[in-house]
Design brief:
single chain; seven-stranded parallel β-sheet; 362 residues; 15% strand; alpha/beta; six-stranded parallel β-sheet
Length: 362
Amino acid sequence: MKKIVLTGGGTAGHVTPNLALLPSLRERGYEIHYIGSYNGIEKKLIEAAGIPYDGISSGKLRRYFDLKNFSDPFRVVKGYAEARRLLKKYRPDVIFSKGGFVAVPVVLAAKHFKIPTIIHESDMTPGLANRICIPSATKVCCNFPETLQYLPEDKAVLTGSPIRTELRSGDRLTGLTFTHLSAAKPIILVIGGSLGAVHINTAIRRLLPKLLEQYQVIHICGKGHLEENLIGRPGYVQYEYVDAPLRHLFAAANLVISRAGANSICEILALRKPNILIPLSAAASRGDQILNARSFERQGFSTVLEEENMNDETLLDAIHTTYENRQAFISAMEKNSQTDAVDIIMGLIKSCAGKDESSSSK
């Protein structure tokens, strides 16, 4: 039986592609283990999927001054030692890393044991954690053709993003029943990401009186961001986070408002949902979401509203315009010949696992 260790964490975007691979890995008989952070969101998601989970110490590599910059390198060193012990224990044939800083010690430890490692980069340009890991990788998967220029030619593979099979099996009626909303008005699904998006949350709630005249709103606002005085308001439902029922909420939605994380927008594309993307600003990020969003805008998949330009008037106009022209967005998305990322990645896993030299027993 072949063994695989999956890693990645920090946000749901660093976990959901791993979850998308699980059915195929199980079908092919792989023994699966997951290495993440001690208490990151990945722990809950992976344990719920029935996969053995081990936590390691993790430090964040920041581009700005923070006192934790002095202590986090020690956490990374500790995480590396813990990852080495776990890899020696499990002796996997291959590693699949979705990124995030917790993956760095795992990938570096895999290099020590000469375990083949596949990395997946979701964004247009590689993030810092993946840039550190790429020299140790056997193959590097990516979502966008534009990303290939930033990767070593002998390692780069254009795969797209693995999409969870269950997302495609959502049922609109089940979504309406779950949310207690009506089929009489169109539904806007607002997703700020697993950690929420304060600016989007605030803007949507400020617009509620106008929005609810024409639409209903499902609001996934992030942990700790529920607004108690809006609980029970007709036509508006809010959740901190939604896991299994998300497929039904997507099925019920006529329009999606989202950040522009690559995994999220690839799921929206696969489900052919008209959407408005509000990428993280360049001031709050390295600008990857802006590049992702503009790529989708150029292809006719999305309306893009940059956070700096978002106010009541521009957001309301974007919602009305996108909904009125929803069929044009759907048609553009239907023309997209999205490849089956799961099959391509499974082929890479099989190939790399077959090359294992059993050196992980050292």
